[in-house]
């Protein structure tokens, strides 16, 4: 589908699971225990929120759920692993074995297309009516979540991917204005050169998925919003010179990163900035919780700004929840989905996690200084879809891009080979 704000930006969106008409009616009148079937007695919620701010967000959401639905027992199915890789592998095994959880976390967008095509998710459109979500969520977000006239998920939040986090003390110590704004990558790279020459790690990064995250923001910065979106619509040539330029910029960006990157996950890379062991880190805005939970204050202890060249663009992703076909406790899942979409649930969850609510009626004053800027940006910026976090491309494409990126950053391929492999990855499911 096409997503319009200031300009058009595409999200071929598919989202989460839902209940059938019978399930929406429930085995009880109001999401109770379903009578003798007991389908609301419990709900297994499958996520990768197992640590840090992610677990804090889940815990906050569970607290609201237990207040709203005390008749339903929450069963935590969290599986640890960077960006959900371990959880997704286990989930696929369970779905193939016809042993689905009652609901599972997934990134809204093209990540769910494989599940939809395999007939593993139910349409939850009726729940949008039952929970008044069509009024609570922006109309363009509803469009983004719609696939072939159906909706397959209820988003719990909105995240921004194209954010640079910086340690102002490190910058000042090396003669760089901590309040400096960068018009483009070249200006930023000039300061990264200064830091590198001073023996400071300019840019922290971690394992493979964080490198793909960095790649997507460099593509966005170099190409601009329309051409970046065109990569996923077939309108931008992956073999074209502008993509070559973007990959050269990515290669330069990687030259500023820490040598132990492949042994770290995103919290460790972010911690390098918090501790003053690196100047900058490119990460989604879930990172803000890592700063805040350690008592760091925006504008004093850390700064945040769009990746140079992407000001005015919001690189979108969202966590969402589904109802799989064959869920053993569909009324329990209905109750969980109701809490996920509720104002109380979204407020509690996002205050803890660092993201912003999908709902338009949330009060910005209840959120942190950074989150208030994100709410404002999401309301006015051009929206594009994240590659690394499931919104822009199907899983098979992301996996192929990740493999090609890992080869390149490990020195096992050159830019020409990298570009060719990216083009092949994008064409595989076009």
UniProtKB/TrEMBL annotation:
<dbReference type="InterPro" id="IPR006059">
    <property type="entry name" value="SBP"/>
</dbReference>
<dbReference type="Pfam" id="PF01547">
    <property type="entry name" value="SBP_bac_1"/>
</dbReference>
<dbReference type="GO" id="GO:1901982">
    <property type="term" value="F:maltose binding"/>
</dbReference>
<dbReference type="GO" id="GO:0055052">
    <property type="term" value="C:ATP-binding cassette (ABC) transporter complex, substrate-binding subunit-containing"/>
</dbReference>
<feature type="signal peptide">
    <location>
        <begin position="1"/>
        <end position="22"/>
    </location>
</feature>
<comment type="similarity">
    <text>Belongs to the bacterial solute-binding protein 1 family.</text>
</comment>
<keyword id="KW-0813">Transport</keyword>
<keyword id="KW-0732">Signal</keyword>
<dbReference type="GO" id="GO:0042956">
    <property type="term" value="P:maltodextrin transmembrane transport"/>
</dbReference>
<protein>
    <submittedName>
        <fullName>Glucose/mannose transport system substrate-binding protein</fullName>
    </submittedName>
</protein>
<dbReference type="GO" id="GO:0015768">
    <property type="term" value="P:maltose transport"/>
</dbReference>
